[in-house]
Amino acid sequence: MNRDPRSTPSEDEAVWCPRVTVATIVPRDGRFLLVEEDVRGQILLNQPAGHLDPGESLVSAAVRETLEETGWEVVPTALVLVQQWLNPRLDRQFVRFTFAAEPVLHHPERPLDAGILRTHWLRRSQIGAAAARLRSPMVLDSIDAWLGGQRLPLSALQSLLPAPTVAA
Question: Does residue 14 lie in a domain region?
Answer without folding.
Answer: no
